[in-house]
Amino acid sequence: MITSSSNEKIKWVSQLLKKRKLREEERLFVCEGKKMYFELLLQRPELIKEAFWSQEGIADLTKEERALLSGAKYELVSNAVFSRLASTVTPQGVCAVVRMPEHSLEALLEGECRLILLERIQDPGNLGTILRTAEAAGMTAVVLSEDSVDAFNPKVVRSTMGAIFRVPFFYVASMPEFLRMLLKKGIAVFAAHLKGSMPYDAVSYGNRYGILIGNEANGLSEECTSLASQAIRIPMYGNAESLNAAVACAILAYESRKEN
Predict the structure, then answer these.
(1) Same domain, 79 and 120
(2) Which pTM does this prediction carry?
(3) What range defines the domain where residue 62 resides?
(4) Please, which residues have CB within 8 angstroms of residue 219's CB and are 6 or more apart in sequence?
(5) Count of Cβ atoms closer than 10 Å to residue 142 Cβ
C-alpha cells in the first residue's frame, strides 16, 4: 500500500491532473470515480495504464463491484494520500491513469457526417456537456480549435460521464482552414449566430454538415462566420442576450437530426 505522498507514482498522477502539456506529451490523462472506472474495465480495459484505490474506496465496494475488480491490477493507497490523486472535494476512492483514445478524422469525414465545431470554447463544464450531448444526439465527432479548453482537463473528463471514451474529438490548428476543407468536401457549415439570417428550425441540414458554436463570451469570429454555408439563429424571446454554449449546441444538434 502506498502511504507516502512523496511516492513517485503519486507525484506523477498529481502532475497529470494539473498540467496539460504533460498530458499531451505522455498521451495520458486521469479519470476519477467508480462509474467511469468500471465502464473502462468492462469495455476498454486496454486504455487503463494504472489504477489507484483508496482504503475507503475498497471498503465501500459492493459484492458485484468486488467481483468485477477481481483480477484487475491496481495500487492500494492510504486515504490521506489518495486526496493527492483527486480533483473533487468528495472523491469516490478510485482514479485511473488512462491512455488517450485515438481516432481517424479523415475516415469520419466520409459518408454521413454530423459534426460539432467549437471555436475557442473555454469552460470545462460546457465542453463536457457538449461531448455528452454529441453522443446522445448521434453526432459523428466534435472538432475544436486548438485554443479551446483541454478536453482531458479533469473537470471536462468528469462532466462527460464517460462520453470522452465514446465520442471522437479532435483539435485543429486553424478552424478557418478546417472549415474551408469541409466545404471543399461538400460538408455544409451552419454557424450559430445572434444575427443569423435564418431561424435554426427553417433550414435543411442534410446528412453531411457541421454545427459551428463560438466562444462563450464573444461568440464566433468574423472569419469563421463568413466562411459558413449559412448563419442560423436561435430566437431570444425574453431579455437574455444569448444561450449557454452547451444549451445552444443541444438545441441545434437535436434539430439537425429531425431529418434523419
Answers:
(1) no
(2) 0.93
(3) 8-99
(4) 193, 194, 242
(5) 25
Q: What is the 3-state secondary structure (H, E, C) of 125-183?
A: HHHHHHHHHHHHCCCCEEEEECCCCCCCCHHHHHHHCCHHHCCCEEEECCHHHHHHHHH
What is the Cα–Cα distance from 66 to 43, expressed in whole angstroms?
17
Cβ neighbour number for residue 196 with a 10 Å cutoff:
18
d(CA 70, CA 91): 22
78-107, pLDDT tens digit by residue? 998 998 887 776 778 999 999 999 999 999
Write out pLDDT tens, residues 175-195. Answer: 999 999 999 999 999 999 998
Q: Which residues of 71-88 are buried (b: 16+ CB within 10 A; e: fewer)?
A: eeebeebeeebbebbbbe
Q: Is residue 162, in this structure, part of any structural domain at all?
A: yes
Largest CA distance in the chain: 62
Distance CA 22, CA 130 (A): 24
What is the DSSP track for 64-96? HHHHHHTT---EEE-HHHHGGG--SSS--SEEE
**What pairs with residue 141 in β-bridges?**
115
Residues, the chain: 260
Residue 194 is classified by DSSP as T
C-alpha cell at 194: 445572434
Q: What is the CATH number of the domain that holds 195?
A: 3.40.1280.10
